[in-house]
Amino acid sequence: MADKHVQTFPGRYEEIQKICQFVAAGAAAAGLDANAIFHIELACDEACTNVIEHAYGGEDQGEIEVSWQLKADSFIITIHDNGRSFDPDAVPKPTLPELSEDAPAPDIDQVKVGGLGIHFMEQLMDDVTFSFDEARGNTLKLVKKTK
């Protein structure tokens, strides 16, 4: 199953569900469990929403190329766009309150907006890498270990 499966989708919010289904079907075929597939779907949803909002600045501004493949013990998703360049190091890390069972519930207003999507992707996946090439655009690689 080392084949690479690639589809290109219009940069529209209504397409995100189709993207997630495409990737989830691949993850299921690769033998990942329901929990891992759910994590993959959440990370893909967040990534594609970010492409539409930030790279393209809105709907119908470009396409999103999505691929998946199984390599050794990893399910690898690649999301590519031709939008504005993205430097993940320029995004501030989110300020999240400490959570414990003893502490009172945190005030959601204390969480700074920005960087949460990247944070969630990093929590849900085993590896998250971004690259930008002037000629090719943005590429996001999401990896979920299969073992």
Query: According to CATH, what is the class?
Result: Alpha Beta
Number of helical elements: 3
The N- to C-terminal Cα distance equals: 15 Å
What is the mean predicted local confidence, pLDDT?
Answer: 87
In the CATH hierarchy, the architecture is: 2-Layer Sandwich
Name the overall outline: globular
Number of domains: 1
Q: Helix share of residues?
A: 25-40%
SSE layout:
Elements: E1 5-10, H1 16-29, H2 34-55, E2 63-71, E3 74-81, H3 116-124, E4 127-133, E5 137-145
Antiparallel strand pairs: 1-2, 2-3, 3-5, 4-5
Overview of this protein structure:
The chain is of the alpha+beta class. It has a single domain, classed as Histidine kinase-like ATPase, C-terminal domain (Heat Shock Protein 90, 2-Layer Sandwich), CATH 3.30.565.10. The chain has three helices and five strands, in the order βααββαββ. It has a five-stranded antiparallel beta sheet with strand order 1-2-3-5-4, with helices on one face. A hairpin with a 3-residue loop joins β4 (127-133) and β5. The longest helix is centred in the N-terminal third of the chain and has 22 residues, at 34-55. It is globular and about 50 Å long. The two termini are 15 Å apart. The mean pLDDT is 87.
